[in-house]
Each structure stands twice: as C-alpha cells, then as structure tokens.
Amino acid sequence: SVAAVSTRPALTQATGGLLPSEGTAALLAGQVANQGVQAFTSGNTAQAFDHWQQALGLYQVAGDRAGEGRMLENLSVIHRLNNRAAESVTLIEQALALYETLGNEDQQPSLYLNLGSAYRLVARTEDAIAAFEQGLSIYQRDNDPKGERIMLSLLAQIHTDSANYPQSIALNEQALELAQRTMNRTAEAEALSELGFAHVMSEQPVQALAYFQPALSLYRQLGDRAQEVATLNNLGRAASLSENYDQALDAYQQALVIFREMERPAQEAQLLVNIAQAYLGAGKTTAAIATFQQAVTLTESLRQQQSNATTLPPRMEAAYRNLATL
C-alpha cells in the first residue's frame, strides 16, 4: 500500500486557519488548483506544488475524488521533475488507486503517461512499458493522434535505452507518421533524429543518414540551434561510420562553427576529436595531428580554469592517446 499525504497544514493555510464547508471547499479547490496551473506554466514549480497541495486538501474536504486524483497526479509530476523518484511513484500510485475506486481509470490517459514516467525514473522498466502501452491504447481508442504520438515516442525511448533498437525503430516510424499527418514539424524532427540514432546503434549508418538529413533541415527551419548542432554531430558520426569522410568533415565543420558561436568550449573540444578522427579515416594525417593538438590545447585551458577537474572524458583521453602515437 502507499502512504497517505498529509494535507491539513496546507488546507488551513488556504482557508485562513479554518476548516471550510464542503461547498466552500469545492469552490476554493478549483481556484487554488488553477493558481497552481498558472504558477507551473510560468516555471515556478515550487509555488505550483504549494497550490496543488492546498487544492488536494480542499478536494478531500469537498469529497471530490476526481479532483483529488488530479492533484495527486500534478504533485507526482513536480516530484518527478525534481528527481524525487520515490515520492513521485507514491503519489501517482495513489492517484491510480483512487481512479480505480471510481472506475474511471480508463478515462485518464495522462495518468498512464505520468505513471510510466515515474516508473521509468526508478528503473521499473517493465512497469513503465505496461503503463505507456495502456495509455497508448486509450489514446488510440479516443482517436487522439497527439497523445498517441507522445506515447509511441516514450515507448521508443525506453526500448532505445534498453538497446532494443528494432522495436525502437518500429515505434518511432509510427510516431513519425503521426507527426507528419498532424503537421507537427518539431515532433517530426524529433522522430527523425531518434530513428537516425537507432540506426547508428544498429550499425546501419547509411540508413541513419537518410533520417538525420531531413531532421537537420527541419531544425534549421525551426531555428533550433541546439538541436541543429546535435544533428550535425550525429550526421557526421553516421557519415564517418559509412566511411564517407568528406561528408563527415563537412557536417563536423558546420557544427564547430555553431559551438564557437554558442561559446561551448567543452563541446568544441570533443567535436575537434571527431574531426581529427575523420581526418585519420580520410588518410589526412597532418590535418589529424593539428586538430588533435587543438583539442588537447583547448582541453588543457579548460582544466586550468577548473583546477578540481582531474579526469578526462573518454573522447578527450582518445585525443591524448592519438596525439601521442601519430
């Protein structure tokens, strides 16, 4: 069983120290819950948490079990966003149990999204998959393509994390079709990127390129520089694995320009290693040595700025090793 949530302090805070009547509580609960939504939308999750905890107590006084369930869900989300995994699971399981007593759990697709996300946070992978699949079936039943796409993407992420790339690819292909059908360019770019990554990890770099290239075009149209540079790096990696080093170097050099514009020296140093390794693959040893040296020089500069940094990322260790042997 799950522990109960204490709501009395929050409840009396919301009502000036007095316990309200059921009618008053119901009215106040809706108002306070909406204040929580406004706070959450503005990015103030701490204030949203306080409002929703107050609303939870008010819904309990009003006897509104459905409202109580919604607040438990909302509070669980705040815990999850703050990496309080155990608390998130406790509250979302309370919400599920409450909806089951009302017999309306199959009308709550967001419940299964939040339930699966909480289980994922505590590495309960099979439970997370079961929750997402239940949510997916509800969205499909209700003919909700947006919700269906989100669930497919979440399921695909779990299978990617578990190195089950064929299943991830199958799910992302469905998510891509829905994104294209609903003309959601951001979701389309994300699905393309995920498909590219899964194909790289499946040792299918040529197929990966066919997904990364349109993803790159979409991110540029959307003006998403962070995703543009990430996709350029992934495209370069896929091209290198395909032994198309000219294409890899072109992608990496474009990414390098963006990292420098964004003033991201740590990412720049790691990208320089990728560039140097592509030069090696292309048989351009002199250029590789010069680029490895740039990576090492930049890394040493960063280490001096961060005197407590004594270990190197794996890719930077590779730069030092390559420079020593070339």
Give a description of the structure.
The chain is 81% helix and 0% strand. The protein has helices at residues 8-14, 22-41, 45-62, 65-81, 85-102, 109-121, 125-141, 145-161, 165-181, 185-201, 205-222, 225-241, 245-261, 265-281, 285-305, 314-325. The chain is elongated and about 80 Å long. The N and C termini lie far apart (62 Å). The relative contact order is 0.05. Mean pLDDT is 89; it is low at 1-12 and 14-18.
What is the gist of this entry?
81% of the residues lie in helices and 0% in strands.
Q: How are helices and strands ordered from N to C?
A: HHHHHHHHHHHHHHHH
**Total number of strands:** 0
What is the count of helical runs? 16
Q: Into which percent range does the helicity of residues fall?
A: over 70%
Globally, the shape reads elongated
Amino-to-carboxy terminus distance: 62 Å
Radius of gyration over C-alpha positions, nearest whole angstrom = 25 Å
Largest sheet: none
Average pLDDT metric: 89
Q: Assign the structural class, choosing from mainly alpha, mainly beta, alpha/beta, alpha+beta, or little secondary structure.
A: mainly alpha
Beta-strand content:
under 5%
Runs in which pLDDT lies below 50 for 5 or more consecutive residues are 1-12, 14-18
Key attributes of the depicted protein:
disordered N terminus, mainly alpha, 326 residues, 81% helix
What topology emerges from the helices and strands here?
Layout: H1 8-14, H2 22-41, H3 45-62, H4 65-81, H5 85-102, H6 109-121, H7 125-141, H8 145-161, H9 165-181, H10 185-201, H11 205-222, H12 225-241, H13 245-261, H14 265-281, H15 285-305, H16 314-325
